[in-house]
Amino acid sequence: MIKKRKIKLKRGKGKKGVTIQFIPYSELGYLTSYKRVKKLLEVVGEEKIVFFQGKLTPEEEADLIEETMKKVGRLKKFKGIELTSFSPKAANLPFFSQMREGIASFLAGNRDIMTVIGPATVVREIRKDPTKIQLLLRK
User: Fold this and answer.
1) Cα–Cα distance between 121 and 64 in angstroms, integer?
2) How far apart are CA 95 and CA 102, in angstroms?
3) H/E run at residue 110
4) What is the 8-class DSSP label of residue 56?
5) In DSSP terms, which residues pair with 128 in a beta bridge?
C-alpha cells in the first residue's frame, strides 16, 4: 500500500516571488532619453526584472549607471543593477533573407534586440552567449 503525504511549502516572512516585466518598444520609443532612463529605474526600483525591446544608446547606459549610483547611496534596499543587451542572430541565412533582415532593421530600428535590467538584490548574474541568455537569481 502506498502512503500519500502532504507537503507544505512554507515561505519566510517578507519573502516574495520574482516579478518580470516586459516593456515593448512602443512604450519607450517615443520618450526622451532622460524619461526612458527614469522609467526603467522606477520599474527596477520596485525590484522587478525588466525585459524591453530595443537597446539603450551608450549615452543612455551611462546616464542609467550614473542615476543608479546616486540611488545606491540614498536608498537602503537598493544595491545597484545588472544590465545586458542581447541580439539573437540566426546563422547561415540565405543571401536574400540577410538582405531582407538588413532592410527591415534599417527602416524599423533594431527591435530584435532585447535588453535585460534587474536589481542587484534579485539578480546575481546575467550570462549570455550568441544563442541564449541566463539570469542567475539570488535566493
Assistant:
1) 17
2) 11
3) none
4) -
5) 133
Contact by Cβ (8 Å): 114, 84: no
CB < 8 Å & 24+ apart, contacts of 37-41: 37/63, 37/64, 37/67, 38/67, 40/64, 40/117, 41/67, 41/68, 41/71
User: How far apart are alpha carbons 68 and 11 in whole angstroms?
Assistant: 30
Which residues, 6+ apart, have CB-to-CB distance to 45 below 8 Å? 71, 75, 78, 119
Closest CA to 128 of 107, 108, 138, 114: 114
At 95-133, the pLDDT tens digits run 777 677 777 666 666 567 888 999 988 888 888 877 778
CA gap 118, 135 in Å, rounded? 9
Strand ranges in the chain using DSSP code E only, listed in sequence order: 19-23, 48-53, 81-86, 114-119, 123-129, 132-137
pLDDT over 90 for what percent of the chain?
A: 21
For 129, the grid coordinates are 552567449
Three cell numbers written together for 69: 549610483
**If we measure between CA atoms, which residue out of 20, 81, 17, 18 comes closest to residue 52?**
20
pTM: 0.72
